[in-house]
């Protein structure tokens, strides 16, 4: 027996093989599996290439995110990061990523594929899946900060499970908001309102932030009771007051959320710790916890992103590619 | 500008592109770079697929090992592991691995290549490079446990920098020792002696263990003053007495060595800690520490393996492949 060849899939092929509806289902199922411990997601390891480190001198980072997916019996890794600086100046998207899949029993490399498209899709799907367990209604109003790629995928994913009755969008670049409104007019059932001022988008049942802002622009006083807030950026988007006064903090992965994104600063200042985290999305998905929002509550939800979601989606893409004989094979060994 | 394509390299191509002499030089240079902090090697992250975990039920693991190499200005990751069980029964090698390289400034994926061959080569080279700073002579006597793939590459790498005057080899499978003696007769300058009993191989200036033994077979009383011992297996090969009485413990990466391989058990039992580690190989290579063996000393050296070495060697392979137009290009994005 020879080592089986590895299937290579590019971004266009991946796009043709999976829909947002399927990604939302896969993410939801993987969430449940994480909740009951059947999916294994070690804490990601960061290679800082100058995003925050003084050396090396580049404006980027890479995260290594391996996982084993119980319900698919698959293992893999996403190596993904974000780069600004010269990459941005040249007009390339922020995210760069590759996903590798192995046979978890024999160790053969089954596939190598682009990871950027799956990253965007699963990040949207994570919000949608978490919302399933946090709100009580089918029709929701949404406030959105950031009208870029992830603004689109967040909106698409939420619309798989909910009717978006009204969407208020704010972006520092108004043209981006206008393009977003045009692109999303068939996805959003209700009206899309372009906010002139940041505070005008802070309305609705759900607020999603997908910005690269390094400012804490989302103010505590803007956020009304009955709201779930998802700050999805890599930096801190909410002000400290809101984070410290939120009634519940729900996360995807406790180990990760303490060291990256919205909570990092407050954890370093010792104003927040693991004790302040209410539960994981996986525990809600698995039915182990019930945390649906009450009228008087404000919930902070942080699906910062797990490799498990990427590997789970990539496995579904791989299975479909094999079924449809899509992709090129390469013998690495 | 389009995203540049990714170069794919298979094991045969990699073999044709790099020699052990070059690997030893690259490893040595990367060691120095680690010692002065110009190469960044975050602690590897383990995905246990049943090697020691109760779930999932497979006899394998995968380690994610990202690194930035200062002297090459390159970044990459090796995702590598070992599988026994059915993989072994089917006759496949223990190690399975893939290496990805990126442009550290722009985040483009430069290459995807087999990682198993480079793993074997750099593991041998790590021992050779460390020995450069630990012994005083050019002619050495070597005791070797394990006559498999890694036994070969350890011997080849050491013979790049030293004349092996005598080599005593022990393997639980005598046929493996006989094949080794045949394969290595031109690499080893002196005599190769096949040991009938384990203790007969515990002689020489240097003892290298590259076994998959889960027993602590190497006994304290066998190891004479003036000996450097390299237990390179994933499990514990030396008995506790030797580890606890060694005059110096020298490692490649303090963070890793406490959690895997020879020291793990004693660290868990709190009989050993970071305080017992003399220095890193990188510090010796960079000239920051001088720890050459004295006649009355016994040194334990643990180059457990860093992603930095893999990424550094893979970068050299990639540069040569580009120069010689070897490999296939694939557009992932």
From TrEMBL, chains A, B:
InterPro entries: NAD(P)-bd_dom_sf (IPR036291), ODC_Mu_crystall (IPR003462), ODC_N (IPR023401). One of its GO terms (cellular component) is cytoplasm. It holds the Pfam family OCD_Mu_crystall. This is Ornithine cyclodeaminase family protein. It comes from Candidatus Cryosericum septentrionale.
